[in-house]
Amino acid sequence: MDIIPVTDFPDIRVRSMVRSTSGGSLMMIPRENKLVRLYIQLTDGLSTNSRLTRSMVTPMMLIETAKRILSPYTIDFTYIHWWSAYQIGQRSGDHFDKQGRIFLAGDAVHTHSPKAGQGMNVSMQDTYNLGWKIGLACKGLVRPKAIIPTYDMERKLVAKELIAFDRKFSELLSMHSAKDISETSVELKQFFKKAPLFTTGIGVNYASSILTVVDDEAHGLAKYVVPGKRFASCQVTNHSDGRVWELHHRMPSDGRFRIMVFGGNIAHDEQRFAVNALGQWLGKTLIPRYPPINICPIVDRRLQTVRFQSELMTPIIEIFLVHTAPRDQIDILQDVDSTYHPWHPKLGWDYDHIFTTSRVITEDTIQSTQSVYEDYGIDEERGAVVIA
Ligand SMILES: Cc1cc2nc3c(=O)[nH]c(=O)nc-3n(C[C@H](O)[C@H](O)[C@H](O)COP(=O)(O)OP(=O)(O)OC[C@H]3O[C@@H](n4cnc5c(N)ncnc54)[C@H](O)[C@@H]3O)c2cc1C
To answer: What is the pLDDT of residue 44?
Structure first.
């Protein structure tokens, strides 16, 4: 239930969990507008799956249970915004698709307790996983029979892992004896810490498939970028305007692939020649192999049509360069291959794809922070290429 609480419980404005030996468990999540969401475990009267017992639940019953669990602290409310009662069912479907044409996603194919805040997040990740694959298949850029089955393969495993996690989490929350509660408090804390790995998708690790190739030698070049896992974001500085960006903000989810060239210190001639040679190959050989795609549909509400404009066509592969040279030592128009800053007849040179790890503090001081390379486990001298 979402309430405006009146309580002497000191941690009411932080996410907290109370497990009581007599009354079950209570989780509190502070919300906007002074609201707090209470997840109250009801241990009495709901032992059967009957709808009748569920319909017996009232807000007063909920708050009385919360009071029992929280005692000797007190809790009451001035306002109830919303409440509901549900029974936890931990289930997942055997198949997420039927013949590669009908797909199940979200709660329709996996359910679990809402306490870990996973359901919506994992459901959206299901449809994201499916969406880009269907998008590229419809555009004729990938073979549906090769790509579409990876949806079932990848997401079914995530659902199974999530349900295993949730079972254990629910079990820990349902402990009654003082001994069990105290013995499992460290474990419960670890579960709390682990939960965001699911909600953010960072913890998901897709197995080898046509999309994920695990090559130990190549992996060593970027030790902390794990093939099959989400590419984590780091802060980088735009080479041209000095603005600091989260890399993810430059990588919208529009169905394109990204090649991130971590080129090291391109102020050194040898390094710059290597990075430029790679740029030439990417620009002249790799990118032209694939037809460009439309990613910005124009919606005409009057005619109720959606169409793509040909001048908005863009390569399906987007190239980024993240180097470590000080900004003032590199003139990108002179020094860097144009694949990294392509020319557009109407828009001029591109200034949004070259980043540096050195950060401008004032006009005269440049502080070099190699943390991006450290965070990804990339050797600055050797560099690495990451496909995301
Ligand atoms: C109390 C509670 C708290 C939660 N808290 C969190 C949280 O903090 N974080 C989190 O990530 N998740 C949370 N969840 C889980 C989250 O709400 C669900 O996992 C998520 O909504 C699932 O999304 P979905 O699109 O798969 O299904 P739904 O959100 O259920 O959407 C399905 C839609 O389909 C419609 N529909 C059904 N049948 C038909 C039909 N025949 N024709 C047309 N439409 C139909 C339904 O009306 C509904 O709108 C919570 C759940 C509960 C119950």
So the answer is: 61
Interface predicted TM-score (ipTM) over 0.85: yes
Query: Residue 359: its pLDDT value, please?
Result: 64
Nearest in space to 167 (alpha carbons), one of 113, 128, 216: 113
According to the model, what pLDDT value does residue 52 have? Answer: 46
Residue 114 CB less than 6 A away from ligand 1: yes
Q: Which residues contact 168 (CB under 8 A, 6 or more apart)?
A: 191
* DSSP 8-state assignment for residue 206: P
Residue with tokens 């984590």: 232
Closest by CA position to 152, among listed 194, 110, 112: 110
Task: For helices 185-200 and 149-173, give the axis angle rounded to 10 degrees.
Answer: 150
Position 302 scores a pLDDT of 81
How close is the Cα of 87 to the center of ligand 1, in Å?
Answer: 14
Which residue, chain included where needed, has tokens 């999540």? 29
Please give the average pLDDT of every successive group of 10 residues along the chain, which has 388 residues.
Answer: 97 91 88 96 62 77 94 96 88 93 95 81 94 90 93 94 86 76 81 77 88 80 91 91 91 91 95 97 96 77 72 86 92 97 92 85 52 90 90
C-beta 196 within 6 A of ligand 1: no
Q: Report the separation in Å between the CA atom of 89 and the middle of ligand 1, taken as the mean of its atom positions.
A: 14
Any residues with CB less than 8 A from the CB of 303 and at least 6 apart, and which?
A: none
- Parallel/antiparallel/unpaired status of strands 354-356 and 317-323: parallel
Atom of ligand 1 nearest to the CA of 111: 19
Q: Is the CB of 106 under 6 A from ligand 1?
A: yes
Q: How far is the CA of 157 from the centre of ligand 1 (A)?
A: 20
Domains of the chain: 2-82 (3.30.9.10), 91-200 (3.50.50.60), 216-387 (3.40.30.20)
- Cα of 159 to ligand 1 centre, how many Å? 16
> Which residue has the least CA distance to atom 17 on ligand 1?
120
Ligand 1 centroid, distance to 107 Cα (angstroms): 6
* pLDDT at residue 46, as a whole number: 53
Residue 385: the pLDDT is 95
- Give the residue, by CA position, lying nearest to ligand 1 atom 19: 119
Residue 56: the pLDDT is 83
Q: What is the pLDDT of residue 8?
A: 97
Closest CA to 292 of 148, 184, 141: 141
Residue with the smallest CA separation from ligand 1 atom 38 is 108
